Each structure stands twice: as structure tokens, then as C-alpha cells.
């Protein structure tokens, strides 16, 4: 395979719930969930049933036709959110690509070719297409491939003065993650999100919320915007939506979509295919239930309490940030740059974690992880900290 990844030596071969087993039969507690993707864990019986039943009917029919699973899923997404229109694709990058194209198309249609500026934030991540990686605020991912698309302006998060200077008559979109994932699981302050909304409205720009990671129950709300008091014009999501089956979605209003994304303007060969939508519908039915969301919040509070205690015990974390079952353990300065090495040590202790940059250990469990699995994983995490930080 092309060496764009540097995987750990662990090769998982089977999963059930929040446990994985490798080629040697050793078990691990999965605290990464495929980077917040396997929202209901591994081999969930409801998802298996949905996949098997749809696989026996029809897998793919192209977008020259529509299909029942896509129609049902779109209706449920709209009923549960501000949205009135949904575009299905295969990933978060594709959802953001669609959102950015739509925002520019809307602005150019209404005001002309100068209104193309996109305001984004340093440290953000919006995908790996050339457009989305250029909009993402991490130059290391977009450098070395020639000039980036024009009209992209990056500023620091929470810098109100810079924001006011950047937004103007040629701004077509402001894109933000309500919880910034790849830079450390950092919630954006609600008052800053409100300012983004006000400035976007003032300059008739689209406010895009990238909820690829923060959506689908991850924070304990169905979508993170629901806890902020701020409503975007466009919302993108993927990852946990399909419970592990690839699917992405862009949600928006009828006024924006119907006027500017007319037939032929955008598309996706596999987007909205019956298999993906059937599995995503089954996933959505579970993760959108008030009982599951309440359990996410309860388990998140428990995990955060234990992680903070572990951090104090070994003197390793300067902060533990919690946004539902999505936690960022920021290393103290003396351990700066060692998050990746700790990821390997944790695997040796039987728990699989993630990183969010070089200084943050990231945890994103299944939303339905059992109390026993959660505590076993935290016990193993404690052991990893003892070996790594107390040695």
C-alpha cells in the first residue's frame, strides 16, 4: 500500500462491542472507534441486520434513480435538525467539498465572481481533497502541491479582532468545527459562534458547521450546534453517521439548495447508495434516541472524572477536555510531543487510543460502550500511564 499511513503493529481481525482481537488473539478495548466512526461499536446486531436485509435487495442503482433507504434517511435527518435538504456522499471530506462549492455557487450567483472568500481557522481540519485541505488550517497537509485555491483566509480561533477584519463584502462562507477535533478536542466558545452567525448574516455569507466528528451523538447532543444556540446555514457530517459504513451528508435549507444546486451542478456516484443509507438509518435511529444521548453524557462525565484523576496521579495531563464521549487529554509541557509514543504504549497495555496533534491523547469510544468495557479500558489506560509517565 502507498505509505501515507504509519500504522501500529497491531492488526485487528475481529470486533464485538468495544473490544477488538488481533491476529494473535489478544484483546483490546477500543477507545478510538475508528476515529469516532464506529459509533455503535463492532458487529452491532441492529446494523448487521440492516446491512444483510438491504444486501439481499439492492446494493447500487446510481443517482439516475432514487431509493427508499436514502429517502427515509434524508427525511429523518431533516426532521431532527434545522435542515430541509440533504446531499449524500461517502465521507466528511466530500461533504465539506459539497458545502464549500455550494457556498461559493450561492454567492457568485447572487453577487458575481468576486464574492468567493472563505474564512477558516488555524488548526482546523476539513478533509483531504485539495479544496478541503486548503481550507483546513494546517499547512503541513496542503503544502508541496503547488498554489492553493484563491480566496481562503485563515485566522486564529477566538480572535474577534482578526475575524472582524477578515469578514467583508466578498466573504461567501465561514466554516468552523464547533468542537475542533484534530487540534485537541477544543470546544469553540458559544459567544464566538454567535459572532460568526451575526457576521455571516450581516455580509450574506453562508455559515458552515463542520460536524464530521462532533455530530451523530458524539458530544451527547445529536449535533453539537444544538447546545450552542447558533444555527448554521449548512452542516456537514459523516464518520459516526454510518456506524462504520462509509457515508457522508451535507445538510442545508431549501432556499439555499434549491436555487443553487440544480441538476448537474454537483454529484456523487456512490453517494446515497442503498447499502450505506440502510445502515446509516439503523444507526441514526439508535444514536438519536434520548436514552442513548443521556447515557453518552453520563458515561462521558464518568470517563472525564477518572481521566483527571489519572492525570493527577501520574502528573501527566495539564487538562482533560470533555465533549461527550470525545475527550482530549493534553500533556504537560515536559511531555510535549509524546502523544504518538503514548498511543503505542497504550496499545501494549490493551487499550487503543488516538492522538489529536503531538500533545493531546484523544479518546472517542463507542456511544454505547458498556460500563464494564469503559472501566476496563480506563484501568488499562491507567496502567499505560504508569508505564509511560512514571517510569
TrEMBL record:
| Other comments on record | May also have succinyldiaminopimelate aminotransferase activity, thus carrying out the corresponding step in lysine biosynthesis.
Q: Which domain of life is it from?
A: Bacteria
| Location of the protein in the cell | Cytoplasm
Q: Would the keyword Transferase be found if you checked this record's keyword annotation?
A: yes
Q: What keywords is this UniProt entry annotated with?
A: Amino-acid biosynthesis, Aminotransferase, Arginine biosynthesis, Cytoplasm, Pyridoxal phosphate, Transferase
Q: Which family does it belong to?
A: Belongs to the class-III pyridoxal-phosphate-dependent aminotransferase family. ArgD subfamily.
Task: Please give the residue positions where the record annotates the modification N6-(pyridoxal phosphate)lysine.
Answer: 239
Is the Amino-acid biosynthesis keyword given for this protein?
yes
The UniProt GO MF terms for this protein read:
diaminobutyrate-2-oxoglutarate transaminase activity; identical protein binding; N2-acetyl-L-ornithine:2-oxoglutarate 5-aminotransferase activity; pyridoxal phosphate binding
**PANTHER family from the xrefs?**
AMINOTRANSFERASE CLASS III, SUCCINYLORNITHINE TRANSAMINASE
Name by which UniProt lists this protein: Acetylornithine aminotransferase
Signal sequence span is none
Q: Which organism is it from?
A: Candidatus Dactylopiibacterium carminicum
Q: Which HAMAP family match?
A: ArgD_aminotrans_3
Q: Which Pfam families match?
A: Aminotran_3
One GO cellular component this record assigns the protein to is:
cytoplasm
The record, for NCBIfam families, names: argD, PRK01278.1, PRK05093.1
